[in-house]
Amino acid sequence: MQHHDSTTAIGTVTGTVFTVAATIDSHDYMKTVILAIIGATVSFTVSMMLKWIWNFLQRKKERKE
Description:
Layout: H1 7-23, H2 26-64
């Protein structure tokens, strides 16, 4: 049975994350948040429009039958 010490891996990952976070400008965080909000809004809107179009086509198909 092998025992793995993960403290080195955790320390490396944590150090990398903190180093990257410290070098990123606060404007980049704001830009990321704004782009995420815009992306989520566009994705939701397109999904709702496609759902409406699909239902419209299904109702139109049912009326023909």
